[in-house]
Design a protein that fits this description.
Chain lengths: 480, 84
């Protein structure tokens, strides 16, 4: 490289002169702005509004020295121009640690500090966003190849997630929003808060560590949240370390990473991705409400079913009582009917028997009367013959004849059963209507009917004794 | 802090409620048994609601186990155009 300036080799410079010489060389060598790409590290913002950071080639792990580094300064005046440029490009990025950038600038030696730096004059937002997209797509493909994209989705969510792990930045709006949503629910949540920066070069490692801390605490679910920001603000959530921490977590992880356009890799591997921290908390509250509603619904069904059963039982008892009463009434009615019928049958039977007995008795009496009349007629004929004989025999035998006549009438009257009954005699017949003439015609228990002048007596034979025996005479027990 | 027993207890309570409901579906259940089942169901629902409503929300801060990082976790938004 040819020396741009004519410098006397034996000249001795002051430090300021040497610094000026360096700047002259730089200006001569780099007459225009340069494009340089690298990753932002150690960014600081001075009170003056100037921004300082280091641009490094590789993406070294936290604490490790990069292979090459270049100090960059962005002065307050230039920063406004660059911000406007970013906004014109869609506003999807923001310079921050860990972000890959392609920036324009001019080399500058700051003599008072003795430090060579790049004075930033412009930026290429598309490069940064493109790098993010490329990196994101590459990571997603890798996770898919390892079957890790849905690993956390397979973790079951407990029915009552009251113990909630929270990973976010301490003092952030995201934390406040999340906790506020939980508090408003009046549910007895227990939150295990593991603070972590959510952007910056160490954010990814810290987020992963916080997730593991919550997992070790044995929470029910873990919420990883942060507020809204530029796409580059979410770089940590596109980091492989965070993705693997979520995919490998044994507890369901919900994300509430505030972004509107696309999703972070953390969202892709999480059990469920919500739009905001508030939405994430609301989902957890909803799970508890669902569990509570499930229990309440079961309880309601139990009470309704129990009421139905009690009502049915009551109706059954009422029905049983009604049936019992009806049955008893019916039984009584039937019994009464049967009793009446039986009584009628008994009555009818007795009456029939009486009729038969009476009929037989009447027949007997008729035959007796016929016989008596026949005998009377015979007697009258005999009288008439006697009278004729007397008339023929003369008056001598009239009185004797009259006496015989009277005697014949007397005997004839004696044969009339009615007269015998009128005198106190009775006629006893058995159940067949046959006249009982001897104790031998009866036996114990025989039903007898005794006819008197003014009626009949039904009786049952208790004992019958022939008069030749030593026992008392035959006895009958009257039954009517 | 919840324990596995808490969760099992809640899940078991729901399962027992389901079981009781199944038993009540049997119309031949004795009235005395019905009474005891309803009492048990009431006990279970009190258990479930008690776990949800028993106390106010609590927040416990736990420290991530990462030895080489000692930052307090504060949100460090130092980007040049940070405006939120």
């Amino acid at each position: 490289m040819q020396m741009p300036l004519d410098v006397a080799m034996d000249r001795t410079f002051s430090v300021a002169e040497f610094g000026q010489l360096i700047n002259d060389v730089l200006n001569h060598t780099f007459p225009h702005d340069l494009w340089i790409q690298g990753e932002v590290r150690d960014m600081t913002r001075a009170g003056s509004g100037h921004v300082y950071f280091t641009l490094v080639d590789a993406a070294p792990k936290p604490g490790r020295q990069p292979d090459a580094a270049l100090s960059v300064v962005l002065f307050e005046g230039t920063k406004r121009t660059i911000n406007a440029q970013i906004k014109r490009s869609g506003g999807g990025m923001r310079i921050d640690d860990g972000i890959s950038v392609r920036i324009r600038g001019v080399p500058d030696f700051y003599a008072p500090g003795g430090k060579l730096s790049l004075r930033m004059t412009g930026i290429d937002p598309a490069y940064t966003l493109g790098q993010l997209a490329v990196s994101r797509d590459r990571l997603l493909r890798m996770l898919a190849d390892e079957d890790l994209l849905h690993a956390n989705l397979a973790r079951p969510v407990p029915g009552l997630p009251l113990h909630v792990g929270l990973v976010t930045a301490n003092g952030s709006a995201a934390k406040a929003d999340f906790l506020h949503e939980l508090e408003q629910s009046d549910v007895a949540f227990r939150v295990a808060f593991s603070p972590s920066p959510v952007q910056g070069s160490d954010a990814a490692a810290r987020i992963a560590a916080a997730i593991r801390s919550c997992e070790l605490r044995g929470v029910d679910v873990i919420a990883v949240v942060r507020g809204g920001g530029a796409r580059t603000d979410l770089a940590a959530f596109d980091d492989e370390v965070v993705a693997r921490a979520i995919a490998g977590c044994s507890i369901p992880v919900f994300t509430g990473i505030g972004h509107e356009i696309d999703t972070a890799v953390a969202d892709e591997v999480a059990h469920l991705a919500l739009k905001t921290p508030t939405a994430c908390a609301a989902h957890v509250v909803g799970l508890v409400r669902e569990a509570e509603n499930t229990a309440t619904a079961l309880w309601n069904r139990v009470t309704v079913k129990a009421a139905d059963l009690l009502s049915a039982t009551d109706a059954e008892l009422t029905g049983a009582a009604f049936n019992a009463r009806e049955s008893a009434t019916s039984a009584l009615r039937d019994a009464d009917t049967r009793a009446v019928t039986a009584a009628r049958q008994v009555r009818d039977l007795t009456s029939s028997q009486l009729d038969r007995s009476s009929h037989r008795l009447t027949g007997h009496f008729a035959r007796a009367r016929l016989l008596s009349r026949h005998r009377l007629d015979n007697a009258d004929a005999g009288i008439r013959r006697v009278a004729q004989r007397v008339g023929r025999a003369g008056r001598v035998g009239i009185q004797a004849a009259n006496r015989r006549v009277d005697n014949a009438h007397f005997q004839a009257r004696l044969l009339d059963p009615e007269r015998a009954l009128a005198r106190g005699w009775s006629i006893t017949t058995d159940a067949n209507g046959a006249v009982v003439r001897s104790v031998a015609d009866t036996q114990t228990g025989s039903q007898l009917t005794t006819r008197l002048a003014d009626g009949t007596i039904a009786s049952t034979v208790d004992a019958a004794t022939h008069k030749s025996a030593k026992n008392p005479p035959a006895q009958t027990k009257e039954s009517s | 802090m919840s324990t596995p027993d808490d969760e099992v207890g809640y899940a078991a309570a729901l399962a027992e409620l389901e079981e009781i409901l199944d038993q009540l579906e049997d119309d031949n259940i004795d009235v005395d048994v019905l009474s005891s089942k309803v009492e048990r169901a009431a006990e279970l629902i009190r258990l479930c609601r008690g776990r949800i409503r028993a106390a106010q929300m609590s927040v416990e801060e736990i420290v991530a186990e990462l030895d080489d990082l000692t930052d307090d976790g504060a949100d460090t938004d130092t980007s040049p155009d940070s405006d939120d």
